[in-house]
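Sanity check. The docking grid for FE2/S2 (inorganic) cluster depends on where the pocket ends up, so I'm generating a full predicted complex first rather than guessing from homology. Inputs follow.
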Amino acid sequence: MDFTLKIWRQANAKAKGKFEIYKISNISPDTSFLEMMDILNDKLVCEGRDPVAFDHDCREGICGMCSLYINGHAHGPDSDITTCQLHMRKFKNGETITVEPWRSRGFPVIKTWWLTAALSTRFCKPEGSFL
Amino acid sequence: MSEKLNAKIPEGPLMEKWTRHKAAIRVVNPANKLKLDIIVVGTGLGGASAAASLGELGYNVKVFCISDSPRRAHSVAAQGGINAVKNYPNDNDSIYRLFHDTIKGGDYRSREANVYRLAEVSNLIIDQCVAQGVPFARDYGGLLDNRSFGGAQVSRTFYARGQTGQQLLLGAYASLNRAISKGQVKSYPRHEMLDLILIDGHANGIITRNLVTGEIERHSAHAVVIATGGYGNVFFLSTNAMNSNGSAVWQCYKKGAFFGNPGFEQIHPSCIPISGDQQSKLTLMSESLRNDGRVWVPKKKEDIEKLRNKQIKASQIPEEGRDYYLERRYPAFGNLVPRDVASRAAKERCDAGYGVNETGLAVFLDFSTAIQHLGKHVIEERYGNLFQMYEKIVDVNPYNEPMMIYPAIHYTMGGLWVDYNLQTTIPGLYAIGEANFSDHGGNRLGASALMQGLADGYFILPYTIGDYLAGKIQEKKTDTNHPAFEKAEKKINEKIAKLFAIKGIEPADYYHRLLGKIMWNYVGMSRNEAGLKKAIEDIRVLRDEFWKNVCVPGENNEFNQELEKALRVADFLEISELMAMDALNRKESCGGHFREEMQTEDGETKRDDQNFSYVSCWEHKDNDTHEMHKEPLNYEFVKLATRNYKD
Ligand SMILES: Cc1cc2nc3c(=O)[nH]c(=O)nc-3n(C[C@H](O)[C@H](O)[C@H](O)COP(=O)(O)OP(=O)(O)OC[C@H]3O[C@@H](n4cnc5c(N)ncnc54)[C@H](O)[C@@H]3O)c2cc1C
Ligand code: FES
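Predicted complex below; grid placement will be based on this.
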């Protein structure tokens, strides 16, 4: 599958950000969204350009690190999942996909759309009230 | 034997060792605890429970992790459960039975005294977690429920759906937060340890990199605890979280801590099969699913063809056309044989041409019998989140069609060598959780890693570290201007500068992927002498390539994920060689370590107790060479026997 990616780039918390456009091709429908981003990043690194920073860890929907706003929805178009569980089969071939950080004070941008989860951590009070 | 290798196993009968030891070791009084600093690296179940407990005790604790919050550590992903010997199902479980199952499951390559202690404290963990509010599953009468895991004939696994690790970690994290709010623990998220500081041969601090600003920081303490998890990501594709790595352990090794059994890795039988070469990680389908799932492949090759061509679905193959090969080969344990046995059996069927997907590398895990007997709602209650996870990834509904699974790298039994006190060969340096080598021998039983991490952190380390720190109460805090810090910081800055200066053409992931292929092909499920020698050569070539051609973009003084990866891959390229060397040395098959030269006629592992009943303990030497020492395993209480899961 081929896609056009419209990605929000921002050097750091204070810098002014803007959208940039990237093309990506030969993506398998079974590839996950973050794997597609890995492929883009590897390509950018090879071309001597700055890769896109994004948080992730478990890649199976349990740790809560990943946090993208995709086509106007938190974690993208699929339901009941986090970004890392989203697969490219949920998009149409040739589609333009818009990728942004979460825009809320609780999740400030540090670089591109990489966020600190300081706020969500604060919900987890000492003495054990679980988020 | 190296004189540093004193396991310090207490005298006396097995059942009394821990009690006697606790009575014999020193304690630190509350006023003196306030003068003592401890660094804990890692906030998984091992690190979080240790840091919380040490903080509550009154020590000054600094705790470090890579993620933005301690509660995201890799432990959060553990699915199936945690073992303990409460014997609630009244199925004749006991401390001795868990001890024996663990020794046997590990194929007689672990230390009796440590394993017995682990079984002994297992029940305390459940009490502790219930008190924290961990929502373990309960039965209709309100009692905590248990399920079965591989390698045991009793049900002793406590669970919270398929999210046990998350709930346990939230419990430990809540305790940690309590200590943080009291000021006893200071938390350093997004800080990666890059080196260990030794002063007069004692662990006295660490160097970290602030992952947001790139700043290299110095932290001193009277003792350092490594709880940084396993190094399974050496294989690139594994069930571990993306940030799991072996760097902290490796840096300690290079500073003189011995590495125990680096060649013992666990390959988990039930993971979602590889779908293509764009994949970044493999997703586990918990072993608990084998409580209700039955593993099979078709008996007839023509059914295989039809499956691969998508002419039929698995559910259309009638009962008599199915080979439930685990039930066939291992009647006594059936689908619940230990992981190494189940993984090899899947490989055997796939190698014989019975793999059920296009790549030929998959078998079925089928729930239809259980759904018929128990109803869909029961299966949904037990494993709902796992079924959903499977459907999202594979796009097949496992309530209707069986899951497809294949083995994948999951856990590392090897790790920093520790004595009975969980102290490494470096005084003042401790290792807990998956980062140490201690309890699982050649193969870990399911639901025993969470048990071990929490046993180490809540109930063992807080006592044993006191014995060491009691001797430190007069010692002043180490000044971070000490030349040892200067030297280490300079070395790290040089290493980072060197990585940036290469300005090569391939990203770190490229080398990582290639390394993973070498490891999987030659240091994976099945190993032989020629393959291991080839692996060592290939790794060396790849490592040279990496240092000539890797490309690390950006700067040091910013958030730079490519730099993080490059530093970790550089270490993986060294750890991997030691893993292969260890596997080459061990000319026997045991647990997950299967040497093709050493197998029985029906393809089972063949141990060589005469020559290999030891822990291989590797020491780092000058010019990056490695020397092996042996810690003999003296079985005083258990009789060595061939593992038998057939009858
Ligand atoms: C998918 C999956 C499911 C599992 N399910 C089960 C199960 O059901 N039952 C069971 O018993 N076991 C299970 N296991 C195994 C078990 O989860 C792990 O062995 C265990 O959680 C490891 O805990 P740990 O505390 O040792 O390390 P981890 O949880 O891996 O934590 C490591 C910590 O160290 C930090 N860290 C690492 N390197 C550095 C560094 N250089 N500097 C600073 N910080 C660092 C990390 O940020 C993290 O906080 C499972 C494993 C996987 C992969
Ligand atoms: S990466 Fe862990 S939830 Fe997405």
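Relevant for the grid: Residues 3-123 of chain A form a domain with the Ubiquitin-like (UB roll) fold (CATH 3.10.20.30).
Also worth noting: The first strand of chain A starts at residue 3 and ends at 9.
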